[in-house]
Amino acid sequence: MTKTAIKDLLAGTYNATPVYSKTGQMILPAHTLLTTQQISRLEFYGIDWVNIQDPSDPVADADTSAQEEEFVSFSQKLRKSREFHTFKVDYKKQTQFLESSFDNLLTKSTPVEPDKLIKQVSSLYVNNFTSLSVFDMLHNMRQVDDSTYAHSINVALIARMLGEWLHLPEEELNVLTAAGLLHDIGKCTINQKILSKPGALTPTEFSQVKQHPKNGANILASQKLDKRIIEAALMHHERCDGSGYPSKLKANEISDFAKIIAIADVYDAMTSSRCYRKGLCPFEVIATFEREGLEKYGTEYILVFLTRIIDTYMGNSVLLNDGSTGNILLINSQKLSRPLLRLNNGEYLNLIKHPELYIQAII
Ligand SMILES: [Fe+2]
Ligand SMILES: [Fe+2]
User: For 278, which of 40, 71, 86, 144 could close a Cys bridge (C-beta 3.0–4.6 Å)?
Assistant: First the structure.
């Protein structure tokens, strides 16, 4: 094992010995896979260094490969499946189609054909999967394609799913799908170098990016499109508390479809900004929404969205960051990311009362 300073820790390594806080509370049991989130936690607790396992440590190897297997097996299995292969081929076709539609509109003023777009993307959704696997498929597609076109397809599919959960009629689901596909068309007017810049944007660059909702709405205004599609392009970065852009609108000024697209947009952005080698943990995403403040989003939509995502995992086994495992028993409506669990040792654990613990993975 190697004593390593926190600042030098790499995500993906394992600690060899348990880590305790200065008050003697155990923060991490031995042989825990260190994620970026856990490294931040160690920093938060003021830990200066930890003992890292060397690959030659035989005990650690046995432990970690079992742990790793639990984390990745679902994604690995999914990626090897024939269904995923079919999805990938279809998805690539749709992405190319969307790209050429955008291109034709912007360079040759060829009108967008929303019906054609909707039909193609909806088939991707309707033909293949249950609600859970759409998320899993999208998550796994991330590693294949991370373009604005792929993002637009993801937002369309996620928004459509939320629309179904809200029991919207088919006609509205179609408008919502088109709104998702076209919401970021204004990004085509922003310098590609800025959009793909890896680091933080300068204030000037950010103010340019902030033009994309207005630019998008202007492009779409010349098309024969449902008004709700144009509004979604214009308002999808507005937030109900007035903290959004470009016009700092308040809840009652933002269109319903823009609120739905905003949720799908943020969900997709959140899942893309992290390394999901270990598989998407919906509770982490939900916790991020809660940290940001649910009041920013249309409450009637965000609560349905997050609750339905959690419902999919009710009764599932989960792994906590201290290595313990259990089942989800009850959702705490005040804090959706912190349900009541029944641990495998028979104890009940209310995560609301244990801020030091969080659900790390669905197993
Ligand atoms: Fe956007
Ligand atoms: Fe977007």
Answer: 71
